[in-house]
Design goal:
The structure is a homodimer of 330-residue chains. Helices cover 46% and strands 15% of the residues of chain A. The first copy, chain A, is α/β, with parallel strands linked by helices and 330 residues long. Chain A binds a DNA duplex (30 and 30 nucleotides) through helix 2 and helix 4.
Chain lengths: 330, 330
DNA sequence: TTATAATAAGGAATCGATTACACATCAATT
DNA sequence: AATTGATGTGTAATCGATTCCTTATTATAA
């Protein structure tokens, strides 16, 4: 591997001068600069980032902590982040918690020891230890998808999105609306979306039946399938006419079960999700859902991160907009 | 940030001893070791990876070059890789070429300057410059998805997979089989799969009509839609009865167009894809496809990488198995 | 002509680890 | 009692950059 010293020797200058030439920093004669650059070209020399970051405390790496690496949401967000930061010469270091809260904490520590310049967390839960660790973080930190106290947060407008969706059902004349959710450990998805559903029903004077509400174990299609099964079983004789699932995958699972049982969608049961998964447009019937524009969320988060890195001060909370996509399932 | 020197001072030993205690390397009395570990615990000290990697030439990072960051294939592969390497304490540095061959070369250089311990490339094309740069790479290098000369490659069995799929159509009595492909710059997807299709038709004495073959501009759903449109237009009066699309997304696009035009699938036209996208199971009719098990491919590649990092010698080419999933679209 | 400032380049310290080498102690072996 | 080997710890060099501090050379102003 060629080092700055090799280049210096070849150009008959000191490594100080090479460094200055490369960083456009301090005086270097045009003559020498050209000589150096030529050699750099020829050798394909690239400075060792380890050495640089040891010295400068900057690594050009943004650490991202994902709950799950291979989901549509994650990869869209990562895409958006990468799009923005790569233009500024930053790289992305990915970690995957596999939905294990302990790993969130572990990775925050780890990323710091790797000298990342900033950390973006796609949080799925909030707990005391997590907040403590985040408070100790010395680099710019942003939470995406959950609002964390005293932490710069970029959040989806879960409450209004879920209200709108519930209202859509009501507008279409539904009065018995079921709900497929996830555990409340996830404040944004598990709590806020459910609260919006409950509030909207109440505001419209509609009954909330326990049998119509089911929380899946995870965000999977199977979990949606199972939830729908449970809801139908528990509400024999008083079936809901619509179901609001908090994710598209769960909605797809629910549809799957309904189709298997010979129900007509949306005739016997209207269905909606959240997330605008690609699949939602191509299943039959196409799924009414809400587009959170995850890629744009990633971009916005990334820009905030860059601002922080440039010591601009940024607002503590940014709420993203959403778009209700009305399709054939409702 | 606490450094090894701080720990050394607090424990009243030299930093040498601290380093030895942390790395279980050389003699350290039980007494001192405990003292050091306790302080490390309390302070939450983590060694600076920049300093470590500057000194040891190892960074604990595997660089991955993806053609597109937010595709099902990419994220499944990354998941598989991460699953394996994270257990060994490695992190993943992601780069996205956005299908730009120049960026492949650029990122290979960049990753090396970042001192990555190994590089995994999800190649989509093969060109002279790429091969040259790869030849200069000084760290373990693996290509996934394309076979590159003199490079450790993990490849899908595109040829046999595509043969099997074509044969399936023939078995079901189809004689007029159309093909939706991509450009030949992509040897695995664009060339091999097409060759397998052509060979299989020929072997079975079936006519190959130019009007039945169309190459989409990219891998998108829209591109599949457009391709199907072209095929139907060009082969008026002698329509194919089956279409083999080289990716699931393209197959979905093709189905979309057929449905719009009122064709029955598979009655008027059978359809198949490759890739086992989640969506393929949930569209109507469900799509016959081939599962390449990308996650497992990622795992296998990662294990090869770990072997290389441990100086075990590995076979230059590994061909993966696949599974034909027969569903309702054929 | 001399003082001053701008330009150009090098010397050496520094970042935070690892590790070769040296040295001291102590127990076991001859 | 002398030699040997195992154990424990420290000193200092090193990795490859950046940057503060000097010094030398020109160009400009007084």
């Amino acid at each position: 591997m060629t080092t700055i010293n090799d280049i210096a020797k070849m150009a008959n200058v000191s490594r100080t001068t090479v460094s200055r030439a490369l960083n456009n920093n301090g005086y270097v004669s045009e003559d020498v600069r050209k000589r150096i650059m030529k050699i750099v070209e020829e050798t394909g020399y690239m400075p060792s980032v380890s050495a640089q970051s040891l010295r400068t405390k900057r690594s050009g790496v943004i650490g991202i902590i994902l709950p799950k690496i291979s989901t549509e949401t994650s990869s869209r967000v990562v895409k958006g982040i990468n799009e923005v930061v790569s233009k500024e010469g930053f790289q992305i270091l990915l970690t995957d918690t596999e939905l294990n809260p302990k790993k969130e904490v572990e990775y925050i520590r780890l990323l710091q020891s790797r000298q990342v310049d900033g950390i973006i967390l796609l949080a799925t839960n909030v707990n005391k230890e997590l907040l403590n660790v985040i408070n100790d973080v010395k680099v710019p930190f942003i939470s995406l998808g959950q609002e964390l106290p005293n932490v710069t947060s970029v959040v989806y407008d879960d409450y209004h999105a879920a209200c709108d969706m519930t209202n859509l059902f009501i507008q279409r004349g539904h009065e018995k609306i079921a709900f497929i959710g996830v555990g409340e450990e996830d404040p944004a998805v598990g709590h806020t979306r459910k609260q919006a559903y409950l509030d909207t029903l109440q505001k419209n004077g509609l009954t909330v039946k326990d049998e119509w509400i089911h929380e899946g174990g995870d965000f999977s299609i199977e979990s949606g399938y199972e939830s729908m099964k449970q809801i139908l079983k528990k509400s024999q004789g008083n079936l809901p006419t619509a179901t609001f699932a908090v994710t598209d995958r769960m909605a797809v699972g629910a549809m799957e079960y309904l189709k298997e049982q010979g129900y007509n969608i949306p005739g016997d049961m209207a269905i909606s999700g959240i997330g605008a998964a690609v699949m939602s447009a191509y299943i039959t019937p196409s799924l009414t859902t809400i587009d959170y524009n995850n890629k744009e969320a990633g971009r916005i988060t990334a820009r905030l991160m860059l601002d922080k890195l440039n010591n601009k001060n940024v607002s503590e909370k940014s709420t993203l907009s959403y778009r209700l996509i009305s399709r054939d399932s409702v």
